[in-house]
Amino acid sequence: MVGICPEGASTLQLRIYPTAYVAALLSLAASSAHAQAVVRGLVQSDSSGRPITEATIAISALGLSARSQGTRGYTLDRIPSGQHRLRVIAVGYRPVAILVALRDNDTVTVNFRLEPEAVALPTIEVKGKAEPFVSGKLEMFERRRRLGFGTFLTRAMLREREHMLFSDLLRQLSGVQLVYRGRCGGYAMATSRGGGALGGGVSISCGPPERCYLALFVDGARVWAWDTGVPPNVDDYATRAFEAVEIYRGAGQLPIELQGLGTACGAVVLWTRTGESP
Fold first, then answer.
1. Using CA atoms, how far apart are residues 26 and 20, in angstroms rounded to an integer?
2. Residue range(s) of every CATH 2.170.130.10 domain in the chain
3. Is the dihedral of CA 48, 52, 55, 58 positive or negative?
4. pLDDT tens readout for residues 130-155
5. What pTM was estimated for this model as a whole?
6. What is the mean pLDDT of residues 50-64?
């Protein structure tokens, strides 16, 4: 048998070895390659005995690891003889570590029973826009607004126009007619079905109404209707004082709770500010 062996820094020489010597070396190498231990077993839940899948069994110092396969367990091989720290990790369970002493050609069964452990998840911060505050008296306003009948002015809409006279605000709305109250002064609200242009200066005396005037409610209470005399001057009410306004241009738009109260021509509902809303 012939082998190559370095002799010195830059010279290679052929050396002849006896066949028996080489055979002994190969036998020793083969024996060393097979003189490794195996650890196998199951990983189970301590509470139920259920096999755990995808647990990691590792000898970190040797860079060896395996995954459990449920009822098929795990197998960790190619372990040299000696004492080794065997560690098991599984999601939702407490880690376990033990020491095992292995000899050449050992096959050792090591079963693990892991205790469940609550997993601390990272804190999640949820940000969102808070729902707008709705005072108790405006719950009815919001309910009727969802029904979709009539015209509804919210606080945000009124804030943009709070410098205006209420009569000027109403002039921007179709279907509402402002009737000049003559020597009584100011304007009353009527429906446009009675004729005349918006704010057209149709004079009335301070007596029985001559048009189809809108009833007036403040915070849900009736302030004026057909049976209470001269219709009020809308500019007696400041726009900036309102939280919300509802306008119904005829009996067909009226919610049931406003019907039958001298409101055959429709109604305007004013909601005063509560100081609670932004």
1. 10
2. 136-272
3. positive
4. 555 555 678 888 888 888 888 899 88
5. 0.47
6. 92
Mean pLDDT of the chain: 78
Dihedral angle over CA of 199, 202, 207, 208, nearest 10: -90
CA distance 62 to 83: 12
Distance between CA atoms of 10 and 180, rounded to whole angstroms? Answer: 121
**H helices of 2-53, where?**
19-34
Could you tell me which of 198, 22, 37 has the C-alpha nearest to residue 105?
A: 37
Instruction: Classify strands 74-79 and 37-41 as parallel, antiparallel or unpaired.
Output: antiparallel
pLDDT tens per residue across span 162-205: 889 998 988 888 778 888 887 888 888 888 665 433 333 334 55
CA distances from 3 to 19, 21, 46, 95 (A): 10, 11, 58, 51
Which CATH number applies to 136-272: 3.40.1170.60, 2.170.130.10, 1.10.10.10, 1.20.1440.230? 2.170.130.10
Structure confidence by residue, pLDDT tens digits, 67-115 = 999 899 999 999 999 999 999 999 889 999 999 999 989 999 999 999 9
Architecture of the 35-114 domain: Sandwich (2.60)
Q: What is the pLDDT of residue 181?
A: 82
Range(s) of the chain covered by CATH 2.60.40.1120: 35-114
